[in-house]
Amino acid sequence: MNAALKIFLSMSFSGSLLILALLLGKRFLKDKISRQWQYYIWLIVLLRLLLPFGPEVSLMGKAYQAVDQAISQTVPLPPQQNAPGYNLAPAVGAEQHNEPVNSPADDITTAHQFQDIGVLLINHIWLVWLVAALGFLIRKITIYQGFVRYIKAGLTPVSDIQRLNELSIVAEQLGIKKPIELCVNPLVSSPLLIGFFHPCVVLPSADIPEKDFRYIVLHELTHYKRRDMFYKWLVQITVCLHWFNPLVHLMSREITKACEFSCDEAVLAKMGSSNAQDYGKTLLDAMVAVGRYKENLGAVTLSENKELLKERLGAIMKFKKKSKAIQLLTGMLTLCIVFSAAFVGIYPTAAAADVPNSINTEKSVPPLFDNSQTADNSSEMETLDFKGTSYYLVYNEAQLRAIGTGKYGMNLNYMQQADISLSAGDWVPIGTWDDPFTGTYNGNGFEITGLTMTDPDAKIIGLFGVAKNAHIYNITLRDYDIASAGKNAANKSVGAVLAIGQGSRSYDNFVYPKEAAVSIEDNSSEIERYYKADSLPLFEITFSRLDENAQRTWLEKLYAESDFAFFSVAVRGLDSNSPLLADFAEKAYTDEEMAFFSTLTDCMDEAELELWLGRALEDGNWAFQSMLYNKLNRGEEFDELKEKQEKEWAEAQAAEYRAAGVTMNGKDYYYRGQLVNIFLDIRPNQSVYTLNMNPKGTVNIKIVRNINNKITGVAYMTEAEVTELLEDMDDDDDDWQETAGGRIWHPQVLPVNLETMANGEIVWLGEYTLSDGDRIWYDVSAETGNGLQVGFVKPGDTHLNTIYYSVKNLRQEDETLECTASFTVKPPVKPGTYKLFLRATDGVLGNVTGSISIGFAAKAS
Questions:
Q1: In terms of pLDDT, which residue wins out, 58 or 71?
Q2: Using one digit for the tens of pLDDT, what is the confidence trace for 238-248?
Q3: What's the rounded mean pLDDT across residues 739-747?
Q4: What is the CA 803 to chain-centroid distance, rounded?
Q5: Which one of 274, 382, 383, 492 is CB 3.0 to 4.6 Å from 486, fit for a cystine?
Q6: 709: helix, strand or coil
Q7: What local confidence, expressed as pLDDT, does residue 849 receive?
Q8: Cβ atoms of 14 and 250 closer than 8 Å
Q9: CA nearest to 462, candidates 436, 488, 490, 434
């Protein structure tokens, strides 16, 4: 259970004892001692319920420690907190058992699963308490605010100067310097006081006799002088926190009653006992004039109900000053209650550290017997018998090695009682296939140091070998060396604490392997084996142990083979100051390999990233600029830069077209004053393809560019070129299954069917490896919307900075918006992995359909 909740429950229980004591004492002392004492004595109980402080030695502390001790001894196995089946070895840290052998779950496993659920609920029950407490508090505050708003809505300030003067006189007599408001609200059932910092006395009627008015005002201002409203809210907060404790709710009602009794007593002490009868008559008159609105918990009223009124009248008539003997008794009772509150105390925070078998990584259970066995290395074990169960106590290496031999069977319960340092001899795992360990072993947080296994033919490697339905927990294994064991074994099972568990539970164990020098040859052979086995974690660990030359060889191999996954884990294994980081970053940047460069930047500091960003800005490399801005958490800055650059590019493109005689008006192109029907602009490398069609146009033109991508002129398209272009658009996939050039294409057809695309939305359609000679065919249209683009980018270029094999079209009036074109992959575009995308470039698109085909080239057989 949460330690804070334990302390809080002990506070509630301690307070309950005091509540019972005061309620019992009230039956005998109610009329004998001061009512004001009966009111304020509850503050001690409130403090006990709210303040988590107490002496180190107390009744509650001893009681809770005894309960915890009994529970921990009754259930020697701590609840599981980590799921079995996840083995962290050989990495340093907490180890859970990895069970390589499948076996059916048995009753004990099922039972502990239910136990785990129960522990989980207990550990989080404080959330239920907290949510309920907040709910009650919010409800009370909301009700009070509603009550105050309702009262204030019907308030009418009293303007009678005589009444206001009387109010001021009484306030001055009580030493109240803050101005007091006086109002009337016919809906209240009796006079009351509202306002914490701006007090207001509310009367049900202005027509009150002068004497009654004085008594009423004196009563209400006495409440204000004593800060009874703050006292009431302190009680309400306590009730919300201890909502589950019925005695606290009973205490709240008792304090409310005591508040009025003590106020009556304070008023009579001020006026004298001779006025008791007149004061009692004022209470009766207040009960007669009952309004329609029931007062709220946050207000302080003159009268509440007939039962309380009867008791108050009796107390008023019996009022007389207490004798010195009663005052002395009152003082003694106060001291007794204060000492009782301290004696009862709370659950001490240090108690958790003293409980045996506590689940933590410290040495939580002190040795149960003398540790002399640690020195003599005797194999004889002492036992601890508790409630019919025997626990064998392990102090030294001889006793640890004796488990499973002679009278110390595999089915017994063992508990470690001291740190154990093992000798250099090879360790023999506890438990075999023929004789598995079936008992329990509690390491108790003590250490086992120096476990060593070197047998190259060993198939079962670990402190415990084979266990069945066993519980092995709370072990700290330090400086163990099992790396060289089992090198020749084809199928070995390795676990620092437990190698093979059949329905066993191995948890709360911590393992720290010995740092050992490993030969370069061993590492080289191991890493090759891990690479072939696709074992990323073991590859990463072994890569970090290679020398720089071996690391460079592997990085070059992984880079050349585009093996991004292994390259990433290898980079994580480099030292932060390794020159390989800079070398391969330069290589990836030059080759425009975004993915590889990105993983290298994860190892760079901010200064290095800034240097690379400066270079990308100087080179105008938008893809790398985007990635580096994101790495520096300055993506918005890049977006602004990109928007500015795209505007400049668009203006430069329009200026370039104008220089060639082509003008643009929105989506329409004009050449020599004529509206263009077909506008075609293909870059020399065919990486960008601009096609615009307007049925209302009268001329067909194409942009002529040189090898440097500069426009050299504009040419009218011949009828043959127009026919070829239109026929290419109508070709289907079967037309490019074979060609006379001795190549055959195997098309992969990607259907496109999107109901809608938001303005500017990019839809990614996967990654594809393109090679020289591959063909790409676009046939995508949108039923509604104005702009559509399709193309490829390099992985990691999420902002579409450098686009390849792209078609971008704008809708013409009364025409379908479509992107239809074909490309052949060839230099200068480099073969590699590219991401396919669709983008809505101008407004929302609706019903985007069609297909994209990628024909992977191969030689015809």
A1: 58
A2: 999 999 999 99
A3: 50
A4: 39
A5: 492
A6: coil
A7: 93
A8: no
A9: 436
Higher pLDDT, 798 or 418: 418
CA atoms within 13 A on the CB side of 361: 11
**How many angstroms separate the first and last alpha carbons of the chain?**
74
Distance between CA atoms of 42 and 519, rounded to whole angstroms?
A: 76
Residue type, 450: G
Q: What is the average per-residue pLDDT within 346-359?
A: 47
Q: Which of 49-63, 212-226, 423-437, 479-493 has the highest mean pLDDT?
A: 423-437
Mean pLDDT of 715-732: 74
In the predicted model, is pLDDT for residue 766 greater than 70?
yes
Instruction: Output the pLDDT for position 544.
Output: 85
Quote the radius of gyration of the chain (alpha carbons, Å). 43
- Helices 42-50, 228-241: inter-axial angle, 10-degree rounding: 40
Q: Is 132's pLDDT higher than 70? A: yes
Q: What are phi and psi of 620, to 5 degrees?
A: 70, 30
Q: Say which residue the tokens 């195997």 belong to.
A: 746
Residue 576 makes CB contacts below 8 A (sequence gap 6+) with: 603
Query: CA geometry: angle at 686 spanning 682 and 689, to 5°?
Result: 45
- 474-513: b or e for each residue (b if 16 or more CB lie within 10 Å)? bbbbbbbbbbebbeebeebbbbbbbbbbbbbbbbbbbbbb
Average pLDDT of the chain is 78
Q: Which residues are bridge partners to 747 per DSSP?
A: 855
Q: Given this model, what pLDDT does residue 116 score?
A: 58
pLDDT at residue number 27: 76
HSE at residue 600, side-chain half, CA atoms within 13 A, is 24
**How many C-beta atoms surround the C-beta of residue 671 within 10 A?**
20
Beta bridge partners of 201: 182, 193
- Cα separation, 262 vs 851, in Å, equals 88
d(CA 357, CA 712): 87
Contact 687, 826 (CB under 8 A): no
Q: What three-state secondary structure class fits 643?
A: helix
**pLDDT for residue 465 is more than 60:** yes
463: left (phi over 0), alpha (psi -120 to 50) or beta: alpha
Strands 804-810 and 688-693: parallel
Within 708-816, strands assigned E span: 711-716, 743-757, 762-770, 775-784, 787-793, 804-810
Q: What CA–CA distance (Å, rounded) separates 458 from 500? A: 14
pLDDT at 121: 66
Q: Which residues of 79-112 are buried (b: 16+ CB within 10 A; e: fewer)?
A: bbebebeebbbbeeeebbbbbbeeeeeeeeeeeb
* Residue type at 799 in one-letter notation: H
Q: Tell which residue, 261, 252, 263, has the closest CA to residue 223.
A: 263
Q: Of 467, 477, 469, 421, give the one whose Cα is nearest residue 445.
A: 477
pLDDT at 34: 79
Tokens of 50: 């709210």
Question: Is the pLDDT score of 806 beyond 90?
Answer: no
Q: Which segment of 514-518, 561-565, 709-713, 787-791 scores lowest on mean pLDDT?
A: 514-518
Tell me the three state secondary structure of residue 676: strand
DSSP state of 273: G
Q: Which of 27, 14, 7 is nearest to 337 (CA)?
A: 14
Rounded Cα distance between 44 and 333, Å, is 12
Report helix angle 622-631 to 594-601, nearest 10: 30
Give per-residue pLDDT as tens, 181-213: 899 988 887 888 888 888 899 988 888 888 888
Burial category of 367 from C-beta neighbours within 10 Å (exposed 0-12, middle 13-18, buried 19 and up): middle
| Ramachandran region, residue 140 (left: φ > 0; alpha: ψ -120 to 50; beta: rest) | alpha
pTM score over 0.70: no
Instruction: Using alpha carbons, select from 619, 616, 575 the residue that is nearest to residue 598.
Output: 616
